[in-house]
Design goal:
20% strand, Helicase, Ruva Protein, domain 3
Length: 271
């Protein structure tokens, strides 16, 4: 019988990179139908080496782990992930932390612009259990993933989804607006893993990465309630540009950092 420790060592060597061992463990746990913790605590399990070999081969070729296993955890929610949506990342949890800290009162209506997998909307709804929300996306395929995640997390009754172009045409006002728009400049370097496997429309936003902010910020005042809050993810070098854009549209803005101390989001209120 092939020992699990030997499988993991061989897989990590083939995968390479900073997260090679973690990737190998996550893939093996998925192949064996157990959690990573169970895998490490109980290594006396049988495994089909060929199934694992196929997964390791895909990872070694650069395919994201989330695409191989079909899911990713975000804010303690297990979310379906496909190549039609961005893979939810821990840095984006900063938006939920900031919203929890800055909301003057519990929001009852939440808007998620560019919802993708619905990670931000569902995380917010999991915190404010009396709220309902709307997710907007320009991709029908992404909205199908969002709906599946609302069903998966038991929040389908409180989350609706709609095809749309940012906030265009919306007449309702919301207490909280969340948004992780494209913010990568078209000439910026990206890892092959991201560039080759995640949707370009959700990554790139013109030469300076600010094109979608230029469209979203003018809409915000008309989408927020009087004491509403909008929290938008940004690139870590885009803080000064976002503050200037916000001021130009009469919005009061503050920057907030992720756990690594880098600017990660901008919080906005009507001026």
């Amino acid at each position: 019988m092939t020992r699990i420790i030997d499988l993991l060592n061989a897989a990590a060597a083939r995968i390479g990179g900073e997260t090679a061992r973690l990737d190998a463990e996550v893939l093996l746990a998925h192949a064996m139908g157990c959690t990573r913790g169970d895998l490490l605590l109980n290594q006396q399990r049988s495994i089909d080496p060929q199934v694992y070999e196929t997964m390791v081969k895909r990872r070694a070729a650069g395919e994201p782990v989330a695409h191989i296993v079909g899911s990713r955890e975000f804010w303690s929610l297990d979310l379906i992930v496909t190549p039609d949506v961005l893979i939810p990342r821990p840095d984006s949890e900063t938006l939920i932390e900031v919203a929890l800290r800055l909301c003057d009162r519990p929001p009852t209506r939440i808007l998620d612009l560019g919802t993708g997998s619905a990670a931000l909307l569902l995380a917010a709804l999991s915190e404010w259990t009396n709220a309902t929300g709307l997710g907007i996306d320009a991709s029908a395929a992404a909205l199908a993933v969002a709906q599946a995640n609302a069903d998966r997390t038991g929040m389908a009754a409180r989350a609706a989804f709609r095809l749309g172009d940012w906030g265009q045409g919306l007449e309702e006002r919301f207490d909280l607006i969340l948004c992780n728009p494209p913010y990568i400049g078209t000439s910026e370097a990206l890892s092959d893993e991201v560039r080759d496997h995640e949707p370009a429309a959700a990554l790139f936003a013109g030469a300076d990465g600010l094109d979608d902010y230029r469209r979203i910020l003018p809409q915000l005042a008309g989408l927020m309630t009087n004491d509403g809050l909008a929290v938008l993810e940004i690139g870590h070098r885009q803080g000064p540009a976002l503050l200037a854009l916000a001021a130009g549209h009469g919005l009061a803005a503050t920057l907030h950092c992720d756990l690594a101390g880098r600017d990660r989001c901008v919080a906005l209120r009507s001026g």
